[in-house]
Amino acid sequence: MNRKQNLIRKAVIPVAGYGTRFLPASKAQPKEMFLVVDKPTIQYVVEEAVASGITDILMIISKGKRAIEEHFDFNPILEAELAHAGRVMELDEIRKISGMATIHYVWQQELNGLGDAISYAKYHVGDEAFAVLLGDTIVESSLPVTQQLMQIYQDYNESVIAFEQVTTDKLSRYGIMQGRPLNKHLYLLEDLIEKPEPAEAPSNLAIAGRYVLTPDIFQTLEAVVPGKNNEIQLTDALRLQLKQKPVYGLHFEGQRYDIGNKLEFLKTNVIFGLRHAELGQDFRHFLEQLLESSDHSKS
Ligand code: UTP
């Protein structure tokens, strides 16, 4: 197999969705710009693509998502101000954001679901396999999860989906894997069950917002029948794809944070806040005091 042909060079990051689970905060602000401590969620996502070796990124955007473009664009006036004030660290940080990748944008005309969003990448991606990273999902792992998927793609040359183990109460929120284990972490997919009742779930492995997809997915997406709310689901296209050819599932090493869900968002901020190099210690102290005082007020 020619390994060079199996390189993934492009990433697609859909960020066009309404984010209705996070209203009212998402009414006029992209949820992908919501902060996890001091950085917008989407920056963590782009950093993961870049750490995986991908610097050609296509974002699928829509009305009201301009703040994302501005965040990754150069800001010469701010840069000049920081340079003038000798604030070298901040200047470096700002420049790094706009220089780390080449980001292209395409508008999703109508918000008809994740599958529909991905179909807008067809002309940018062409006939290469590509990575997909959901713009509202941060994944932490020692080796970036996109890179873990790319390594599997290099060996198998087929689509690969990242899965995480979830607790029973979360099974009905995600697409769940039915698959045959090939080794400890890798599965050959047999089916994907969208949001099953816990008793009907074939496993506890849930689609985690990271994919490597072969380009025939665009044709497959055209064959998908719109479901609830007229939405074209990427999971439905993957179900069709896995009936025609092998599709792999990687139970990846790492932790997923779904920022589009209010409670997960709060938890993520606490976890990242406690670990933050500058703020972590003070934040821990604050939380300890808060818990202590609430224990006292109960007793
Ligand atoms: P979600 O499944 O969280 O959907 O999208 P959503 O519409 O944004 O949010 P809710 O369910 O109404 O709260 C996962 C990712 O796919 C993008 C979103 O922006 C998000 O980053 N997306 C979703 C699109 O780009 N287009 C769509 O039509 C739907």
Blueprint of the fold:
Layout: E1 10-14, E2 35-36, E3 39-40, H1 41-51, E4 56-61, H2 66-72, H3 76-84, H4 88-99, E5 102-107, H5 114-119, H6 122-125, E6 130-133, E7 137-140, H7 145-156, E8 160-165, E9 175-181, E10 186-194, E11 205-213, H8 217-222, H9 234-244, E12 248-251, E13 255-258, H10 262-275, H11 280-298
Parallel strand pairs: 1-4, 1-6, 4-5, 8-12
Antiparallel strand pairs: 2-3, 6-11, 7-13, 8-11, 9-10, 10-12
Helix pairs in contact: 3-4, 10-11
Give structural notes.
By secondary structure, the protein is an alpha/beta fold. It has one domain: Spore Coat Polysaccharide Biosynthesis Protein SpsA, Chain A. It is built from 11 helices and 13 strands. The strands form 3 sheets. It has a 9-stranded mixed beta sheet with strand order 5-4-1-6-11-8-12-10-9. Strand 2 (35-36) and strand 3 (39-40) form a beta hairpin. Helix 3 (76-84) runs antiparallel to helix 4 (88-99) and helix 10 packs across helix 11. The model has no long low-confidence stretch (mean pLDDT 94). Residues 14-21, 32, 60, 108, 111-114, 116-117, 134-136, 260 line the site of uridine 5'-triphosphate. Residues 14-21, 32, 60, 108, 111-114, 116-117, 134-136, 260 line the site of uridine 5'-triphosphate (UTP).
